[in-house]
Amino acid sequence: MKKAFLHYLWKFKKFDTLDLVSVHKEQISIIDLGSYLESENPIFFNAQLVINHQKWAGNVLMYPKSSDITVLENALDPSLQSTILYVVWLHDLASCTKENSEIPILELQTYVNPEIVSSYQLLMTPKSWIYCQKDLKNSSNWARTDWLEKLFLERLEQKTATIRALLATTRNDWEAVLFCLVAKNFGLNINGSLFYQIAQSIPFTILRKESNAPENLEALLFGFAGLLDSENQDGYFADLKFRYFYLLHKYQLEPPTLEPVQYAKLRPDNFPNIRLSQLANLYSNQHNLFSKIIELDTLEFAYTLFDVAVSPYWKTHYGFGKESSFKPKKISKSFVDLLVINTIIPFQFAYRSSLGQDASRESISLMRKISPEKNSVVTKFVAFGMTAADALDSQSLLQLKKEYCLKSKCLDCAIGVAVLQ
């Protein structure tokens, strides 16, 4: 039996608590189950028990079998030295006697209804996609709504940790961090990592100095992306290349060796040169982007803020020297939605958290106004009976699949618990 099931049984008191007796005949009464701490050694912290009429306060540890109990290791671990009870599913008599374990051992299977075990085994039987796919339609409304909000906030906290790590490399320059995050999202899934590396490689102080000349910003971005490495007779290509080498010399820059940009599977409007041109024009047009994004609280403001097109040359080109029909190639509203979901809201949340402010309500409110993302994970959940009414739902379902379904953490998931109940 897995530890996760033992944790579930103990946490939700899914066993007969009357007349509990340890494997060595000690009477046990539960006053407080304790608080579950998920760590390298998961424990129920500060439980309160009465053992043989003596009240104890301390930790409860769980093992599939009593032979798994590592008494010596627990004695050496400061966080486990206050253990007052071992809970096991199976007590294999030959391995653990009263003499080698002074801490009482409770064999839990004796007190658990077999129907609960059958339900757990049925839930954990492998399915075609996720364990509970047949039961999603029958899960409670609470499991579908309140749990999704918690998943979204959990996802935000993870993104905040990433932003904090980036802050440490930029000496707490929030504007530089914002540029890296925006650049990554401009690259989408295919070129996102490369755009992120480019943004990290160009000191933001240089971007500030050159922001009045969008051609210079474009030259830097194109050059660091390797888009100016070849030879081309196109006049605009030659101009950008001249500006690029001038800026390299002016600021003593050494561009890193990066993987080439990718064009495969991209629509022309998502070509890396188009997105980099839009990024250059964004930072040329919006000199106070950081303060505006911190204040952003409506989608309408976001659409106005990112109402940016490409440079004049790219309005009639998709590649150097290859003229096409005129198209402004403005950032679309759907692309802005992705920026709000993946950059603006996490950035606002991280920044306000750094000031000791709680931005969860504002984040949830804004996410509820954005249409849900369309991807294979969300489509699958919807097919099995979940709903994705907005972007908060779709982000939560991504978190659910990645952090719970794929890791078989069904008993840490409100939906999994609801299915068992």
From TrEMBL:
It comes from the Bacteria. This is DUF2851 domain-containing protein. It comes from Flavobacterium crassostreae. Pfam families: DUF2851. InterPro entries: DUF2851.
